[in-house]
Amino acid sequence: MKKIIVSIIAFSLFSASCSDFIEKEQRGKQTLENYFQTVQECENYANELTQRLLLAKEWWVLTAPRVTNEMSTDDAWMGNTGQDNSAHRPCSQYIITPDNMGDMNGIYTAHYYTIQSANIGLEKMAMSPITETQKNQYMGESLFVRAYCYYELVNLFGGVPLYTKSLGTSDLTLERSSAADVYAQIEADLKDAAAKLESAPVARDGRINKWAAYALLARVSLFQEKWAEAKTYANKVITEGPFQLEADFLNIWNVNNHNGVESILEAQSSSVQNRDLGAALPTLAGARGEDKKNFPSNDAADVLDGWGWCMPTSDLENAYLSENDVIRRRSTITKWGEAAYGDEVLNPTHKFSLNDNKSGRICRKYYIPIATRRSLDKKDGHLPLNIPLIRLAEMYLTRAEANYHTGGDALADINVIRARVKLDPKTGISGPTLLRQIYKERRLELAFEGLRLFDIRREKDPTTGRPVIESLMGPNGTFVQYNLSSTDPYETTNLREPQDKGINFNPAKHLMWPIPQLEIDLSGNVIKQNPGY
């Protein structure tokens, strides 16, 4: 594991709720020995950990790798065909090697830096003179952050070095733990976090609470095929938590509906003009090559002009069309020349550069409405789009899949999700057909929300018993074959991103990414590489 230099966190002035800015008096020279003496100091530290996890100051550290993972699935192309794609190409085209990781190096290093910082904070907060109630809140939040870091690491790389105490200079190399051991620590941290956060307020926008811990427990239980536990935790969030499904699906990603009734955990954003506190995702994945002449106003203020990465595939669009799923399709995908859903008056024919766009499509979930664009003097770094990371609909789908495997009523849960988007209920299906429908509902509901790669790696094809990704990718994969025979007028016209996306997938190694070679070298080869790399 990369040598970690122990240092004090650069304490953020930005509250996790974006509601105000904290000014604190400097108490002489601050070190790890005299910090954590006040509630404000402990809160600042927990806020900084949360910000690192959910809204990294540098977009390329976490946002870019998470978007690259989307590009590695059947949902998204790299998309931008006019610029250097070396950061995204290794994963997206399955040519990744330990020495050519693209931007996947960043998420590995960033999470271990955050884990080390969380370990320091937990040790110091435990000895802080603040009250037990206050300790519980900030330690609970820190435990969740550590658990989430390990959750992403184990799903991206498999078993990784595991440690829960701050490292000193004599502890700089650790062997990899098994994936089972990493998951066990994630579960322990989340259970501890939920217990510590039991009496912490839930309505504080942007703060981690016990329901986020229970919801992530439901997710990691599902990923381990612990069906009973997945059902228990998902059911707890659904029946006991203060959440409800948004009546309008489009409202989940609404710039004017931050932390809505369905949201369990969101990365916070703000358009405050003297700080770069906005979301990077709408820029990174926004339409490239917008022009004021394509808007009714003919006003440059309406132009955002994103970078054009992570463009939806026609295969994903076809999945919506096969269900006549108009609401979720238009809330997820905008095709070139089509009105931006919910913004039809000000953007009736959203057009952008087809020369720079592989698929002629953009992700509607990441879209910034025209009225919001006009209100901003500064756009890049100031876009007020919160990013939902866990929401209630996922819990219904988790319970549905768990019910399928435990003999419960899986249909009822997917039909709740379908009813919200005005689709008829599914009836009379069971066995493999039902399981495939559950998988499909997850894809349609949660597209571009960070779960597709993890899902197709873990979901089992009910016919073969093999991971679903193996039936999609590789020379004979259905997704690869679809693209090779596609007649889509956008994707097949712009061939600067190859049409054989996924053809290099090898199930012997690509169910996880390699460990960065740099980390292996710095460990003195104590860390061993994943098979096949």
From TrEMBL:
Protein origin, superkingdom: Bacteria
Alphabetical UniProt keywords: Cell outer membrane, Membrane, Signal
Name by which UniProt lists this protein: RagB/SusD family nutrient uptake outer membrane protein
UniProt similarity note: Belongs to the SusD family.
Pfam families named in the record: SusD-like_3, SusD_RagB
Domain called RagB/SusD: residue spans: 348-533
Organism: Flavobacterium procerum
InterPro entries (UniProt xref): SusD-like_N, SusD_RagB_dom, TPR-like_helical_dom_sf
All copies of domain SusD-like N-terminal, residue ranges: 63-222
Record localization: Cell outer membrane
